[in-house]
Every structure is written in structure tokens, then in C-alpha cells.
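Example 3.2
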Amino acid sequence: MLLANKTMKTHQIARKLFLSLALFVSVTAFGQELPKAKPEDAGMSSARLQTLSTTLDGYVREGKIAGGVAMVMRRGKVVYRHAFGDRDREAKSPMKPDAIFRIASQSKALTSVGIMILQEEGKLTISDPLSKFIPEFAASTVAVPKEGGGYDVVRAKRQITLRDLLTHTAGISYGTGPGRDKWEAAKITGFYFSDRDEPIGETIKRMAALPMDAHPGERYIYGYSTDILGAVIERASGMAFDKFLEEKIFQPLGMKDTSFYLPQSKLDRLAVVYSWKDGKAERAPVEGTTAAQGHYVNGPRKSFSGGAGLLSTADDYARFLQALLNGGELNGRRILSRKSVELMTVDHLNGLAFRPGQGFGLGFSVVKDLGVYGAPSTVGEFGWGGAYHTNYWVDPKEQLVVVYMTQLLPAGNIDDYGKLRAGIYSAFID
């Protein structure tokens, strides 16, 4: 009996030590800063990157952008991080590298990775019909325009699959298609969900009764597909969507400032939204439009929009992208296999019309033809952006990660994206 008690105590002590060590490793990884390097040590020119800083600062001087954060990683290390202008111009609060931004459609990449994680866990396959998880979509309909005006509602030729949603070929827009009147009557239009006083799953179930814009697989149509995938993640995982992302992606990668809603303790880090008007950036209203400051602090906090709802920082998003560039892991914490990343970052459109020189994968645009694309890049680059004028890309061949965060909606015809890209690629010296 004495020996048994000693053995039990030994096991208890060992278990406590193991849990303490696991917690220490988790906290250490969570708080670990991204490694840095001099640009020249990573094959880039400090002088040319300084020219890029001057260019970005110029937009602030001219009043076109209130402020932003630009960040470049190469060969796994941060070689450039430039916070410029103001987080809140009227309050004279300068932009800092840890500012928090509304990343809108940059949420889509995280949601898409979530689906691939569930495929690796055996909880779904991307060829599954959507109705397997949300039965209301078993009998989808399509609004077909009629000559002379109006439209007919017909049964979809086939069911929507998860792959259709990942590639935006499910036929679902943001409620702007031929059946727009029904979407407006249901109060489901536009990308903004943060003011909704209902869980995302309930909104998606109501969406299923509305006519789509095209038959599944026949056209690339950008819209609610990734929001629907967020509801699928909840059904397939048995977890609330925000908790799933936190456990499966944010914590392993150390993304400590990425969330759907803002904690009060971080309020002084949230960048203010501005709108392009007559060539200048003007402060957007507090509420009332998608260009407003939003319900990220004082809203209902019920709707987790996988398509456009997340907040993040340049550093957090760079961690996520670097993990993808690494084949699904960062600092020894793997969220996805290399083969899943490879599948996500090739064209899946099979000839469907998209952007010149680009295709679309499972959550990302992909550069296919450099000459047709017509901008500095490399075949195989993947990326996307967000409605508040955020942008990112990953160039695997060049081992390059770029994150660009501003808050400008609408952004008018500002040309900063092109100059950012040119400035970064012109800095290569290897």
C-alpha cells in the first residue's frame, strides 16, 4: 500500500511538472517576437527600403492616407517595418507598429485554413456538399434574369460543395445579383456583420432560402462564401468559431492581437477609419455605413464573420503568412501540413474568368502569368486584401512576406499598392 501511494504521488508530481512545462512552452511561443535581420543580410537594400518609407510618408503629407503600417519579411526574418502617419489624426495619436486594424476580407484566408485543418482532422473533406453541415442548402435556388427585366427562380443544377465556397464559385455574391430585392428584404447585403444581433449560423441559415447569382461551379463570384464556411467550421468542429480560430491558429502562432471584437484594454490601439473624398482622407462617421468606425468595441459581439470580421496587427498577420510560407508551421508549432498549403495556393478555377494573369486557389489569388499580370511579382505568389485598404502577399520563390495595413474605405483611386509593390521588389540586391 505504501509503495502504491508513493508511486501515485510520483505520477502526480510528474504530471504537474509536465503541465507546467507545456504551459511554459505555450506561453513562450505565444509571446515570442518575430526574428529581425538587416535588409542586406536578407538580400535587400536598406537605402531602397528607405525610399519606400519616404514614398509612404508622402501620402500622409498630402493628406491621402492618415497612417498605416508596412512590413516585409524575407527568409523568415523582419527586414522592414514602417509605421507612418497617425492612428487617429484628429487626436494627434501617432501610428505605432502594434496598431490594430479591421482586416475585413483578410479574414477569409484564416477561415479557409480552418477548413483545411478540419479536413486534416478527418471531420470533413472539401468535396463534401454544404448541405451535409447546413441542411438548409440542400435545395439551393438561382435567380436567372429574364429578357425585358425581372428574373426567374430555378433550382440549382447541383449542390454547393465546400470547395465551391473556398474558390468563390458557389454562385453567391454579397446580395447584389439578379435577386437583390430578396436579399435586401432579408437584410443580408454587404460584407459588414459586426452589428448583427444573431450568431453567424442563424444568418447563414436564412441566407440559404435566398436565390443565388449563378449555378455552382459556373462562375467566380465574390461574396458570402467564406462567411458560410465559418458556420460550417462551427458545425463540423462542435466549437464556437472564435474559439476554434483561437485554439487552432491564433494561439499556436502567437497571434495575440487577432480577434473578432476588441477588448476594452486595447481600445487605444485601434486605428481610425478614414474615407477617400476629393483626393483626401477624411474621418469616417462613428456609425451608419460599412465605412464607419464599426461595432468592434460596443456592438452585440455575437456574429463571427469568417469573411470579413477580424481585427489584427501587421505582426500577427505576418506570423500567419510566414507559417504558410514555411509549409504550415512557425517556431515548431504546426497548424497545417505542407501538402494542404500547396493545394490551397494553386489555381482551382479551371479556366473560369478572373483577373488578368491570376487564378484563384482555396482562399487566395495566385499569380499564373507574370507578363499578363503586369506588375513586379513571381509566378506562384499568393495573396489578397481587405475592404479597409489592407493588403498582403507571399512570394514563395523569393521567400517574401508583405503585410500592408491602412484604414481607408472607400480608397478611391489611390495608387499606394502599386508603389508599395514596386518599392519592395526594387530593393532586391541578391
